[in-house]
Each structure stands twice: as structure tokens, then as C-alpha cells.
Design brief:
Structural class: alpha/beta
Strand content: 25-35%
InterPro entries: AAA+_ATPase, ABC_transporter-like_ATP-bd, ABC_transporter-like_CS, ABC_transporter_ATP-binding, P-loop_NTPase
Helix content: 25-40%
Order of helices and strands: HEEEHEHEHHHEHEHEEHEEHEH
Shape: globular
Distance between the termini: 32 Å
Protein name: ABC transporter ATP-binding protein
GO molecular function, one term: ATP hydrolysis activity
CATH class of the largest domain: Alpha Beta
CATH architecture of the largest domain: 3-Layer(aba) Sandwich
Organism: Modestobacter muralis
CATH topology of the largest domain: Rossmann fold
GO biological process, one term: response to antibiotic
CATH superfamily of the largest domain: P-loop containing nucleotide triphosphate hydrolases
Number of strands: 12
Largest sheet: 6 strands, mixed
Bound molecules: adenosine-5'-triphosphate
Radius of gyration: 23 Å
Length: 300
């Protein structure tokens, strides 16, 4: 178990979920993007939506934020329907979308001070600057920030009002590795404070690092939901035993690698089995299998 996992407070499974979605349908023109998507995000958890480009992750998030109308399905976010909820509900959400948000002419600090007026209990600006690693850029004009620094500012604006639920749509795209790790810490801190986090990402290491559970969107639905380490449990059971023989590489896929190893060692009584390795699929292998499995038809 990692220190990150030890530090996580428990997800509040007894409470009403932060997000409940049943049978969500959304089409653009004649093209159906979401085709009966079900989703539940528990209070206090970090949930990561994974899926290929165009799978419908942003569409899902925008429906949940109330900025996009759905065609069918039931949606509840913090107990209200986003299609009809008002300003008080909106103030309980934090939104970090993919687009550029802030104006260019103000400095980073001025931007945060400006938007603080729209929230009732904003985080202190210096605390926010430190949390997203922008202390040194506090007096820099937004227009002069790098792409990654703008993402950090967008994250700061999204969490400024201490929201109960934060939507983070590909939050670390364009960030360098140091900034990504700083951002991960920020998400862990939010999570430790009891904030519910729903994020989309293409980085599987990010999902594994941050998420209590991940959901894979493909074919307009959530095809699997599980903690990152348990995603694709059936796929993960199969190990690959690989070794070299005089004629070339040999490979056996099996759910009982110990038996294969016993036979191999018996066949090599005098020495080692050349280049022997035993591997099981990682998160990336499982993800690719889940996404690939849906491209040719209904995965269920
Ligand atoms: N306003 C729109 N009008 C028409 N089609 C749209 C619109 N917005 C999104 N789409 C289409 O809907 C599909 C889903 O898009 P969406 O942005 O939700 O996917 P995504 O999973 O977030 O992708 P990515 O990982 O690339 O961000 C895509 O095929 C996209 O082209």
C-alpha cells in the first residue's frame, strides 16, 4: 500500500451519491455520442473517466455541469437536476474545463482576486497560488503565461470557491512532469478535505495515482468501473510466461504460471531457463483491451 492510499479518508458510501446518471443519451445532429450511459460518483471520492478521443467524456461532464442539454436519461448532481438547477447549486461546483478561461490583461493575482468576489468563502489567494505552483508568476500577466501555467491558473479558479464537487476535464494536459506532480498533490489535498472529484484524463498513471475508481467510456457507455488496480480483473488473471530456446522465443499465456514454471525448471535441471520472465497485464494493457473490445460491437 502506498502512503497516498494510507492518507486517503474513506469514501462516504452511505451518503447519497454526489452524481447519479441513468441511461444518459446525447446526440449531435444524427450522431449518438452517449447511448445509455450509467454513472455513480460517491461523496468524497476521486473518480476518473477514461476513454479514447471522442468517446464522450467532455460531453458527459458538460451535461453534469448543466451547460449541455441531454436528450434522455436521469441525472442528479448534488441532489439536483443540472438542467433545472439554479445559481446556489452552481456555486457548490468547481469547473476546470479544457478551454482557456481567464482574460489576458490581468495578472495572475488580479485574476484570482477578481473571481474571488463571485464566491462566498474563497480560498486565500496566496494559499491558492502556492497550491498550484504559481507564486512566482503572481504578478505576471495571464497573456504571458505558458500553456501549462494557464492550466494551473484554470485549476486555481476552479477550486477557489471551495466547491463540494470539482469537475476536472483533462486538467494536466500541457503540464510538465513537475507541474503534474504538484497538481496531483492539489487533488489529493482536495480529496483529503472531503471534496468529490470527477476528472477525465488520457494519462493512465494519473488515473492510477489519483482515482479511487476509474470508469472506461467506450461505445457511448461506461463499459467497466473499478478501482484502478482491479480494472479488468479477468484480463489480469492471465499471466504471460516467456523464455528463450535455441530455436527462438517461446511464450505461454496461463492463469497458472506456477505450473508452467515447474515444468520449465524440470526441463532445465542443470541451469537457468534463458531470459525467463512472468508478466501480467498492466493498467494500459487492460485499458486497451477494454476500449478495443468495444470498437466492433456491444461489449456487454
Ligand atoms: N458541439 C458539438 N457538435 C457536434 N459534435 C460534437 C460537439 N461536441 C462534441 N462533438 C462530438 O461528440 C463526440 C464526443 O466528443 P467529446 O468531446 O465528448 O469526447 P471526449 O471523450 O471528451 O474526447 P477527447 O478525449 O478528445 O477530449 C466527438 O465525436 C465530437 O466530435
Amino acid at each position: 500500500m502506498t502512503t497516498t492510499e494510507v492518507a486517503r479518508p474513506p469514501v462516504r458510501t452511505g451518503d447519497t451519491p454526489a452524481v447519479t446518471v441513468r441511461g444518459l443519451v446525447k446526440a449531435y445532429g444524427g450522431t449518438t455520442v452517449l447511448d445509455g450511459l450509467d454513472l455513480e460518483v460517491r461523496r468524497g471520492e476521486c473518480f476518473a473517466l477514461l476513454g479514447p478521443n471522442g468517446a464522450g467524456k467532455t460531453t458527459t461532464i458538460e451535461v453534469l455541469e448543466g451547460v449541455l442539454r441531454r436528450d434522455a436519461g436521469e441525472v442528479s448532481v448534488l441532489g439536483e437536476d443540472p438542467a433545472t438547477a439554479g445559481r446556489a447549486w452552481r456555486a457548490r461546483l468547481g469547473v476546470v474545463s479544457q478551454g482557456e478561461g481567464a482574460g489576458q490583461a490581468l495578472s495572475v493575482r488580479e485574476t484570482l482576486v477578481h473571481f474571488a468576489r463571485y464566491t462566498s468563502t474563497p480560498c486565500p489567494v496566496d494559499e491558492l497560488l502556492a497550491a498550484v505552483g504559481l507564486t512566482e508568476q503572481a504578478d505576471t500577466r495571464v497573456g504571458s503565461l505558458s500553456g501549462g501555467q494557464r492550466r494551473r491558473l484554470a485549476v486555481a479558479l476552479g477550486v477557489q470557491g471551495r466547491p463540494e464537487l470539482v469537475f476536472l476535464d483533462e486538467p494536466t494536459t500541457g503540464m510538465d512532469p513537475v507541474a503534474r506532480r504538484q497538481f496531483w498533490q492539489l487533488v489529493r489535498d482536495l480529496r483529503a478535505d472531503g471534496t468529490t472529484v470527477l476528472l477525465t484524463t488520457h494519462y493512465l498513471d494519473e488515473a492510477a495515482e489519483l482515482a479511487d475508481r476509474v470508469g472506461v467510456v467506450a461505445g457511448g457507455r461506461l463499459v467497466e468501473v473499478a478501482p484502478p488496480a482491479e480494472l479488468g480483473a479477468a484480463l489480469r488473471r492471465e499471466a504471460t510466461v516467456r523464455w528463450r530456446e535455441p530455436g527462438g522465443w517461446r511464450e505461454v499465456r496461463t492463469e497458472q504460471p506456477a505450473g508452467v514454471l515447474r515444468d520449465l525448471l524440470a526441463a532445465h535441471p542443470c541451469g537457468e531457463v534463458p531470459d525467463l520472465s512472468v508478466t501480467r497485464p498492466g493498467l494500459e494493457d487492460v485499458y486497451l483491451a477494454l476500449v478495443g473490445a468495444t470498437s466492433g460491437g456491444d461489449p456487454r
